TrEMBL record:
Protein name: Elongation factor P
This protein's UniProt keywords: Cytoplasm, Elongation factor, Protein biosynthesis
Entry annotated with the keyword Cell inner membrane: no
Organism: Tenacibaculum lutimaris
Family according to the record: Belongs to the elongation factor P family.
Function summary: Involved in peptide bond synthesis. Stimulates efficient translation and peptide-bond synthesis on native or reconstituted 70S ribosomes in vitro. Probably functions indirectly by altering the affinity of the ribosome for aminoacyl-tRNA, thus increasing their reactivity as acceptors for peptidyl transferase.
InterPro entries named in the record: Elong-fact-P_C, NA-bd_OB-fold, Rib_uL2_dom2, Transl_elong_fac_P/YeiP, Transl_elong_KOW-like, Transl_elong_P/YeiP_cen, Transl_elong_P/YeiP_CS, Transl_elongation_fac_P
Pfam families the UniProt entry points to: EFP (PF01132), EFP_N (PF08207), Elong-fact-P_C (PF09285)
Localisation: Cytoplasm
Gene3D superfamilies named in the record: 2.30.30.30, Nucleic acid-binding proteins (2.40.50.140)
Pathway annotation from the record: Protein biosynthesis; polypeptide chain elongation
Residues of the Translation elongation factor P/YeiP central domain: 67-122
Length: 188
């Protein structure tokens, strides 16, 4: 058993007869009244996101997990195929379990959290940043640079990202996988 002081991003807990992964949390100590922890939980079975508040010191049942490196192979409808980089066993996961499936390139190595009780995969953690190539974007219009102007662009995985006007087709960009946002252009 853990308490609210053990809550951290990525922790898997049993809550409401399901397993949830903590995706955001905030410890709050108001001037008046008891402290509490505000959390945003994502169900690892359905992908549903839930906001919940735990009072300070509340007991939570954590799920023991192991992390393994898996290589992303290919998508098949809403099913994604991965291969363990150590023993080459393959697993399939549903799209709802993935945090940013539209930013995953074939061959990408990700971390899969596996429940130690039943060896079932719980969730996939992407690297903090990925580097993808722009496959389509409109040319930037000169004179539109008074503010941080952006334009939509499509990357090689099919995801749409807003990028600065100076980015062109064929450029490689670094994308923050947590926010799904442009970070910087990569020079070869």
């Amino acid at each position: 058993m853990a308490t609210t002081s053990d809550i951290k991003k990525g922790l898997c807990i049993k809550f409401n007869h399901d397993i949830y992964k903590v995706i955001e949390f905030l410890h709050v100590k108001p001037g008046k009244g008891p402290a509490f922890v505000r959390t945003k939980l994502k169900s690892v079975t359905t992908g549903k996101i839930l906001d919940n508040t735990f009072s300070a010191g509340h007991k939570i049942e954590d799920v023991r997990v192991e992390t393994h490196k898996f290589q992303y192979l290919y998508p098949e409808g809403d099913t994604y195929h991965f291969m363990n980089t150590e023993d080459y066993n393959q697993i399939t996961l549903q799209k709802s379990v993935l945090d940013a499936p539209d930013l995953m390139k074939e061959g990408e190595v990700v971390t899969v959290l596996i429940n130690t009780e039943d060896n079932m995969p719980l969730s996939v953690e992407m690297p903090s940043h990925v580097i993808l190539e722009i496959t389509h974007t409109e040319p930037g219009v000169k004179g539109n640079t008074a503010t941080n102007a952006t334009k939509p662009a499509t990357v090689e995985t099919g995801a749409r990202i807003n990028v600065p006007l100076f980015i062109n087709e064929g450029d490689k960009i670094k994308i923050d996988t947590e926010k799904g946002a442009y970070t910087e252009r990569i020079k070869e």
